[in-house]
Amino acid sequence: MNDLKELGKMMKEHPVMIVVTLAAMMAGAALGAIAYYQGWLG
User: Fold this and answer.
1) Using an 8 Å Cβ cutoff, are 14 and 6 in contact?
2) Are the C-beta atoms of residues 39 and 32 closer than 8 Å to each other?
3) In the structure, how many helices (H) and strands (E) does the chain have?
């Protein structure tokens, strides 16, 4: 539970950073899926 409290504190202090990180993760996952299905990975 302590980790959740720390996370909550971080989200209050750096909301923009969290959103940017999540957006980057989504973009990376989407690109990875596209690359996989297009066969770009060899």
Assistant:
1) no
2) no
3) 2, 0
